[in-house]
Protein backbone atom coordinates (compact mmCIF):
# COMPACT_ATOMS: atom_id res chain seq x y z
CA UNK A 1 0.00 0.00 0.00
CA UNK A 2 1.42 3.37 -0.98
CA UNK A 3 1.65 6.13 1.60
CA UNK A 4 -0.77 8.98 0.98
CA UNK A 5 1.71 11.83 1.16
CA UNK A 6 -0.53 14.48 -0.35
CA UNK A 7 -3.20 14.66 2.31
CA UNK A 8 -2.91 16.06 5.84
CA UNK A 9 -3.24 12.72 7.67
CA UNK A 10 0.00 11.52 9.26
CA UNK A 11 1.45 9.75 12.26
CA UNK A 12 4.17 11.68 14.04
CA UNK A 13 6.79 9.55 15.76
CA UNK A 14 9.11 10.98 18.40
CA UNK A 15 12.21 8.79 18.17
CA UNK A 16 13.79 10.53 21.17
CA UNK A 17 10.85 9.33 23.29
CA UNK A 18 11.61 5.74 22.26
CA UNK A 19 15.29 6.01 23.14
CA UNK A 20 14.34 7.71 26.43
CA UNK A 21 11.97 4.86 27.28
CA UNK A 22 14.67 2.27 26.58
CA UNK A 23 17.10 4.08 28.86
CA UNK A 24 14.44 4.39 31.56
CA UNK A 25 13.91 0.62 31.62
CA UNK A 26 17.64 -0.12 31.48
CA UNK A 27 18.13 2.12 34.53
CA UNK A 28 15.81 -0.19 36.49
CA UNK A 29 17.47 -3.54 35.66
CA UNK A 30 20.99 -4.87 36.29
CA UNK A 31 23.57 -3.49 33.85
CA UNK A 32 24.57 -7.01 32.83
CA UNK A 33 21.13 -7.70 31.35
CA UNK A 34 21.07 -7.45 27.55
CA UNK A 35 18.33 -5.53 25.78
CA UNK A 36 16.52 -6.64 22.64
CA UNK A 37 14.10 -4.13 21.12
CA UNK A 38 11.02 -5.72 19.58
CA UNK A 39 10.34 -4.06 16.22
CA UNK A 40 7.93 -6.59 14.73
CA UNK A 41 4.79 -5.41 12.93
CA UNK A 42 6.65 -2.34 11.66
CA UNK A 43 7.72 -1.53 15.21
CA UNK A 44 4.11 -1.66 16.42
CA UNK A 45 3.18 0.82 13.70
CA UNK A 46 6.02 3.25 14.45
CA UNK A 47 8.31 2.22 11.57
CA UNK A 48 10.77 -0.62 12.04
CA UNK A 49 13.68 0.77 10.03
CA UNK A 50 13.48 4.22 11.61
CA UNK A 51 13.17 2.84 15.14
CA UNK A 52 15.95 0.27 14.71
CA UNK A 53 18.29 2.79 13.08
CA UNK A 54 17.73 5.27 15.90
CA UNK A 55 18.08 2.79 18.77
CA UNK A 56 20.72 0.34 17.59
CA UNK A 57 23.43 1.96 19.72
CA UNK A 58 21.28 1.51 22.83
CA UNK A 59 20.39 -2.17 22.43
CA UNK A 60 22.09 -5.51 21.93
CA UNK A 61 19.75 -6.75 19.22
CA UNK A 62 16.27 -6.75 17.76
CA UNK A 63 13.30 -9.11 17.63
CA UNK A 64 11.00 -9.50 14.63
CA UNK A 65 8.17 -11.87 13.85
CA UNK A 66 9.28 -13.29 10.50
CA UNK A 67 12.12 -13.47 8.00
CA UNK A 68 10.93 -10.62 5.81
CA UNK A 69 10.94 -8.21 8.74
CA UNK A 70 14.51 -9.26 9.47
CA UNK A 71 15.57 -8.87 5.86
CA UNK A 72 14.11 -5.35 5.81
CA UNK A 73 16.35 -4.39 8.72
CA UNK A 74 19.44 -5.97 7.19
CA UNK A 75 18.84 -4.20 3.89
CA UNK A 76 18.55 -0.94 5.83
CA UNK A 77 22.01 -1.47 7.29
CA UNK A 78 21.16 -2.88 10.72
CA UNK A 79 24.05 -5.10 11.84
CA UNK A 80 23.03 -6.09 15.39
CA UNK A 81 21.64 -9.62 16.02
CA UNK A 82 18.06 -10.09 14.82
CA UNK A 83 15.96 -12.84 16.42
CA UNK A 84 12.96 -14.11 14.45
CA UNK A 85 10.39 -14.91 17.14
CA UNK A 86 8.00 -16.86 14.92
CA UNK A 87 8.51 -20.36 13.56
CA UNK A 88 10.17 -20.44 10.14
CA UNK A 89 9.80 -23.62 8.10
CA UNK A 90 13.11 -25.40 7.36
CA UNK A 91 13.04 -24.64 3.65
CA UNK A 92 13.86 -21.01 4.41
CA UNK A 93 17.14 -21.83 6.18
CA UNK A 94 19.38 -20.78 3.25
CA UNK A 95 17.75 -17.34 3.19
CA UNK A 96 18.11 -17.04 6.96
CA UNK A 97 21.79 -17.84 6.64
CA UNK A 98 22.26 -15.28 3.83
CA UNK A 99 20.90 -12.49 6.02
CA UNK A 100 22.52 -13.65 9.27
CA UNK A 101 19.25 -13.95 11.14
CA UNK A 102 18.72 -15.94 14.33
CA UNK A 103 15.93 -18.53 14.20
CA UNK A 104 13.52 -19.67 16.87
CA UNK A 105 13.35 -23.48 16.98
CA UNK A 106 10.24 -24.77 18.70
CA UNK A 107 10.15 -28.56 18.27
CA UNK A 108 12.05 -31.73 17.54
CA UNK A 109 9.80 -32.16 14.51
CA UNK A 110 11.38 -29.06 12.97
CA UNK A 111 14.87 -30.53 13.33
CA UNK A 112 13.77 -33.87 11.92
CA UNK A 113 12.22 -32.18 8.90
CA UNK A 114 15.32 -30.06 8.30
CA UNK A 115 17.58 -33.12 8.46
CA UNK A 116 15.30 -35.12 6.14
CA UNK A 117 15.57 -32.55 3.34
CA UNK A 118 18.61 -32.54 3.99
CA UNK A 119 19.72 -29.01 4.93
CA UNK A 120 23.09 -27.73 6.02
CA UNK A 121 22.50 -26.37 9.53
CA UNK A 122 26.13 -25.69 10.36
CA UNK A 123 26.65 -22.38 12.17
CA UNK A 124 22.94 -21.56 12.00
CA UNK A 125 22.13 -19.22 14.90
CA UNK A 126 19.15 -20.41 16.94
CA UNK A 127 17.19 -19.85 20.13
CA UNK A 128 14.97 -22.53 21.70
CA UNK A 129 11.34 -21.67 22.47
CA UNK A 130 9.80 -23.16 25.62
CA UNK A 131 6.03 -23.44 26.03
CA UNK A 132 5.69 -22.84 29.75
CA UNK A 133 1.95 -22.36 29.51
CA UNK A 134 1.30 -19.85 26.71
CA UNK A 135 0.18 -22.67 24.45
CA UNK A 136 1.52 -21.32 21.15
CA UNK A 137 5.00 -22.57 20.26
CA UNK A 138 7.82 -24.30 22.07
CA UNK A 139 9.00 -27.50 23.73
CA UNK A 140 6.91 -28.60 26.68
CA UNK A 141 9.32 -30.74 28.71
CA UNK A 142 12.90 -30.85 29.92
CA UNK A 143 13.50 -34.08 28.00
CA UNK A 144 12.36 -32.51 24.73
CA UNK A 145 14.47 -29.40 25.37
CA UNK A 146 17.59 -31.47 26.04
CA UNK A 147 17.01 -33.66 22.98
CA UNK A 148 16.41 -30.65 20.75
CA UNK A 149 19.46 -28.74 21.95
CA UNK A 150 21.66 -31.81 21.62
CA UNK A 151 20.35 -32.53 18.14
CA UNK A 152 20.85 -28.97 16.96
CA UNK A 153 24.37 -28.80 18.32
CA UNK A 154 25.23 -32.12 16.74
CA UNK A 155 23.97 -30.72 13.42
CA UNK A 156 26.35 -27.79 13.81
CA UNK A 157 23.91 -25.10 14.97
CA UNK A 158 25.00 -22.41 17.36
CA UNK A 159 22.38 -22.57 20.12
CA UNK A 160 22.60 -19.02 21.44
CA UNK A 161 19.50 -18.72 23.58
CA UNK A 162 16.44 -20.21 25.22
CA UNK A 163 13.26 -18.33 26.07
CA UNK A 164 9.63 -18.46 27.05
CA UNK A 165 6.70 -16.03 26.91
CA UNK A 166 4.28 -15.21 29.72
CA UNK A 167 0.55 -15.17 29.14
CA UNK A 168 -0.53 -12.98 32.08
CA UNK A 169 2.42 -10.81 33.06
CA UNK A 170 0.26 -7.73 32.45
CA UNK A 171 -2.51 -8.79 34.84
CA UNK A 172 -3.00 -8.12 38.55
CA UNK A 173 -3.56 -11.81 39.29
CA UNK A 174 -0.07 -13.33 39.04
CA UNK A 175 -0.89 -16.98 39.76
CA UNK A 176 -0.57 -18.09 36.13
CA UNK A 177 2.60 -16.02 35.79
CA UNK A 178 4.18 -17.67 38.81
CA UNK A 179 3.29 -21.14 37.48
CA UNK A 180 4.95 -20.38 34.15
CA UNK A 181 7.99 -18.85 35.81
CA UNK A 182 8.48 -21.87 38.08
CA UNK A 183 8.18 -24.24 35.11
CA UNK A 184 10.73 -22.29 33.07
CA UNK A 185 13.20 -21.94 35.93
CA UNK A 186 13.05 -25.67 36.64
CA UNK A 187 13.53 -26.52 32.98
CA UNK A 188 16.51 -24.18 32.57
CA UNK A 189 18.11 -25.52 35.76
CA UNK A 190 17.87 -29.06 34.40
CA UNK A 191 19.39 -28.46 30.98
CA UNK A 192 22.37 -30.56 29.98
CA UNK A 193 23.60 -27.55 28.02
CA UNK A 194 22.33 -24.06 28.87
CA UNK A 195 22.66 -21.45 26.11
CA UNK A 196 24.27 -18.11 26.81
CA UNK A 197 21.05 -16.08 26.66
CA UNK A 198 18.06 -16.94 28.84
CA UNK A 199 15.12 -14.59 28.41
CA UNK A 200 11.50 -14.43 29.45
CA UNK A 201 11.00 -10.71 30.05
CA UNK A 202 8.58 -9.05 27.70
CA UNK A 203 7.52 -5.46 28.46
CA UNK A 204 5.11 -6.42 31.23
CA UNK A 205 7.59 -8.75 32.94
CA UNK A 206 10.29 -6.10 32.79
CA UNK A 207 7.96 -3.56 34.41
CA UNK A 208 6.24 -5.59 37.12
CA UNK A 209 8.08 -8.89 37.65
CA UNK A 210 11.78 -8.45 38.29
CA UNK A 211 11.94 -12.10 39.36
CA UNK A 212 11.24 -13.01 35.73
CA UNK A 213 14.28 -11.16 34.40
CA UNK A 214 17.09 -13.54 33.50
CA UNK A 215 19.96 -12.12 31.43
CA UNK A 216 18.11 -10.52 28.52
CA UNK A 217 14.97 -8.41 27.96
CA UNK A 218 12.59 -8.37 25.02
CA UNK A 219 11.14 -4.87 25.12
CA UNK A 220 8.09 -4.25 22.97
CA UNK A 221 5.17 -1.93 23.70
CA UNK A 222 6.82 -0.22 26.65
CA UNK A 223 9.54 1.37 24.50
CA UNK A 224 6.81 3.03 22.47
CA UNK A 225 5.51 4.64 25.62
CA UNK A 226 2.35 2.68 26.36
CA UNK A 227 1.21 0.63 29.34
CA UNK A 228 1.08 -3.09 28.35
CA UNK A 229 -1.74 -3.68 30.83
CA UNK A 230 -3.91 -0.91 29.47
CA UNK A 231 -5.14 0.56 32.73
CA UNK A 232 -5.10 -2.54 34.95
CA UNK A 233 -1.66 -1.97 36.48
CA UNK A 234 0.02 1.34 37.28
CA UNK A 235 3.37 2.00 35.65
CA UNK A 236 6.25 1.94 38.16
CA UNK A 237 7.89 4.90 36.42
CA UNK A 238 7.10 7.37 33.67
CA UNK A 239 7.41 6.58 29.99
CA UNK A 240 6.66 8.81 27.01
CA UNK A 241 4.18 7.93 24.24
CA UNK A 242 6.05 8.17 20.95
CA UNK A 243 3.23 8.35 18.39
CA UNK A 244 0.53 10.88 17.68
CA UNK A 245 -2.01 10.74 14.86
CA UNK A 246 -3.14 13.96 13.22
CA UNK A 247 -5.20 15.10 10.28
CA UNK A 248 -7.01 18.28 9.24
CA UNK A 249 -10.44 19.52 8.29
CA UNK A 250 -10.96 19.29 4.54
CA UNK A 251 -14.64 20.24 4.47
CA UNK A 252 -16.92 22.17 6.86
CA UNK A 253 -20.62 22.83 6.43
CA UNK A 254 -23.71 23.77 8.44
CA UNK A 255 -26.56 21.26 8.21
CA UNK A 256 -30.17 21.84 9.26
CA UNK A 257 -32.00 19.93 11.96
CA UNK A 258 -33.02 16.48 10.72
CA UNK A 259 -30.07 16.04 8.32
CA UNK A 260 -28.68 12.52 7.97
CA UNK A 261 -24.93 11.93 7.94
CA UNK A 262 -22.99 8.92 6.65
CA UNK A 263 -23.69 5.40 5.42
CA UNK A 264 -26.85 3.88 6.78
CA UNK A 265 -28.04 7.31 7.98
CA UNK A 266 -27.02 6.30 11.50
CA UNK A 267 -26.73 9.92 12.64
CA UNK A 268 -29.37 12.62 12.31
CA UNK A 269 -28.74 16.17 13.47
CA UNK A 270 -31.03 17.32 16.28
CA UNK A 271 -30.60 21.01 15.41
CA UNK A 272 -28.51 23.18 13.12
CA UNK A 273 -24.98 21.76 13.41
CA UNK A 274 -21.52 22.28 12.01
CA UNK A 275 -20.19 19.07 10.43
CA UNK A 276 -16.52 18.64 9.53
CA UNK A 277 -15.03 15.99 7.25
CA UNK A 278 -11.62 14.38 7.88
CA UNK A 279 -9.54 12.51 5.27
CA UNK A 280 -9.03 9.14 6.91
CA UNK A 281 -11.10 6.04 7.57
CA UNK A 282 -11.00 2.34 8.17
CA UNK A 283 -8.49 1.82 5.34
CA UNK A 284 -6.10 3.81 7.50
CA UNK A 285 -6.88 1.78 10.62
CA UNK A 286 -9.55 4.08 12.07
CA UNK A 287 -12.17 1.37 12.35
CA UNK A 288 -15.96 1.62 12.05
CA UNK A 289 -16.49 1.14 15.78
CA UNK A 290 -14.99 4.58 16.38
CA UNK A 291 -18.36 6.21 15.67
CA UNK A 292 -19.35 8.06 18.83
CA UNK A 293 -15.76 8.53 20.02
CA UNK A 294 -14.04 11.93 20.04
CA UNK A 295 -11.29 13.73 18.20
CA UNK A 296 -9.65 16.98 19.31
CA UNK A 297 -10.09 20.29 17.51
CA UNK A 298 -8.72 23.54 18.95
CA UNK A 299 -8.40 21.84 22.34
CA UNK A 300 -12.01 20.66 22.35
CA UNK A 301 -13.49 17.18 22.12
CA UNK A 302 -15.62 16.72 19.04
CA UNK A 303 -17.62 13.51 18.49
CA UNK A 304 -17.41 11.34 15.40
CA UNK A 305 -20.91 11.33 13.92
CA UNK A 306 -22.09 8.99 11.20
CA UNK A 307 -20.34 5.79 10.25
CA UNK A 308 -16.62 5.72 9.64
CA UNK A 309 -16.10 5.28 5.89
CA UNK A 310 -13.12 3.73 4.12
CA UNK A 311 -11.51 7.12 3.48
CA UNK A 312 -13.44 9.74 5.45
CA UNK A 313 -15.05 10.42 8.81
CA UNK A 314 -17.39 13.19 9.87
CA UNK A 315 -17.33 15.03 13.18
CA UNK A 316 -19.66 17.49 14.91
CA UNK A 317 -18.00 20.85 15.50
CA UNK A 318 -18.99 23.49 18.07
CA UNK A 319 -18.48 26.20 15.43
CA UNK A 320 -17.08 26.74 11.96
CA UNK A 321 -13.32 26.32 11.57
CA UNK A 322 -11.13 27.10 8.55
CA UNK A 323 -10.15 24.29 6.18
CA UNK A 324 -6.78 22.92 7.20
CA UNK A 325 -7.43 23.24 10.94
CA UNK A 326 -5.46 20.54 12.77
CA UNK A 327 -7.39 17.61 14.21
CA UNK A 328 -5.80 15.19 16.69
CA UNK A 329 -6.93 11.57 16.90
CA UNK A 330 -4.12 10.28 19.15
CA UNK A 331 -2.08 12.72 21.17
CA UNK A 332 -2.38 16.12 22.82
CA UNK A 333 -4.28 19.14 21.50
CA UNK A 334 -4.52 22.11 23.83
CA UNK A 335 -5.15 20.78 27.31
CA UNK A 336 -6.90 17.65 26.03
CA UNK A 337 -5.29 14.25 25.43
CA UNK A 338 -6.45 11.10 23.66
CA UNK A 339 -4.17 8.09 24.13
CA UNK A 340 -4.00 4.88 22.15
CA UNK A 341 -5.30 3.21 25.32
CA UNK A 342 -8.37 5.48 25.24
CA UNK A 343 -8.98 4.44 21.64
CA UNK A 344 -8.56 0.79 22.61
CA UNK A 345 -11.18 1.09 25.34
CA UNK A 346 -13.64 2.49 22.82
CA UNK A 347 -13.00 -0.48 20.55
CA UNK A 348 -13.01 -3.07 23.32
CA UNK A 349 -9.48 -4.13 22.45
CA UNK A 350 -5.86 -3.40 23.47
CA UNK A 351 -3.57 -0.50 22.66
CA UNK A 352 -1.22 -2.85 20.76
CA UNK A 353 -3.92 -3.43 18.16
CA UNK A 354 -4.71 0.26 17.79
CA UNK A 355 -1.11 1.01 16.81
CA UNK A 356 -0.60 -2.03 14.61
CA UNK A 357 -3.77 -1.29 12.63
CA UNK A 358 -2.45 2.07 11.43
CA UNK A 359 -1.93 1.21 7.80
CA UNK A 360 0.96 2.05 5.50
CA UNK A 361 -1.34 4.56 3.83
CA UNK A 362 -0.66 6.85 6.79
CA UNK A 363 2.79 8.46 6.35
CA UNK A 364 5.12 8.46 9.35
CA UNK A 365 6.96 11.69 10.17
CA UNK A 366 10.00 11.37 12.45
CA UNK A 367 11.66 13.76 14.83
Automatic annotation (TrEMBL):
Q: By its UniProt entry, which CDD domains does this protein fall under?
A: PLPDE_III_AR (cd00430)
Extract the InterPro entries matched here.
Ala_racemase (IPR000821), Ala_racemase/Decarboxylase_C (IPR009006), Ala_racemase_C (IPR011079), Ala_racemase_N (IPR001608), Ala_racemase_pyridoxalP-BS (IPR020622), PLP-binding_barrel (IPR029066)
Kindly identify the residues recorded as the active site. Answer: 40 (proton acceptor), 263 (proton acceptor)
Q: What class of enzyme is it?
A: isomerase
Signal peptide extent: none
Q: Which reaction does it catalyse?
A: L-alanine = D-alanine
N6-(pyridoxal phosphate)lysine PTM sites in chain numbering = 40
Say which family it is in: Belongs to the alanine racemase family.
Q: What is this protein called?
A: Alanine racemase
Phylogenetic classification of the source organism: Bacteria, Bacillati, Bacillota, Bacilli, Lactobacillales
Amino acid sequence: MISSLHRPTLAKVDLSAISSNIKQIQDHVPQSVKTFAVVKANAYGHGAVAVASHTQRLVDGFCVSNIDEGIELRQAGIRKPILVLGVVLPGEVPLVRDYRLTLTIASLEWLELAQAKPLDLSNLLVHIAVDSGMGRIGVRSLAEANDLIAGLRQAGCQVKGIFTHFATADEADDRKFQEQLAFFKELVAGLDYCPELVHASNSATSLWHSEGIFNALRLGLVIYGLNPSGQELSLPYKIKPALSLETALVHVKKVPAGADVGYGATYTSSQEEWIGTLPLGYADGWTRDMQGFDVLVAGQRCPIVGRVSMDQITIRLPQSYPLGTKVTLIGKNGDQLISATDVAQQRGTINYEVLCLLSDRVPREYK
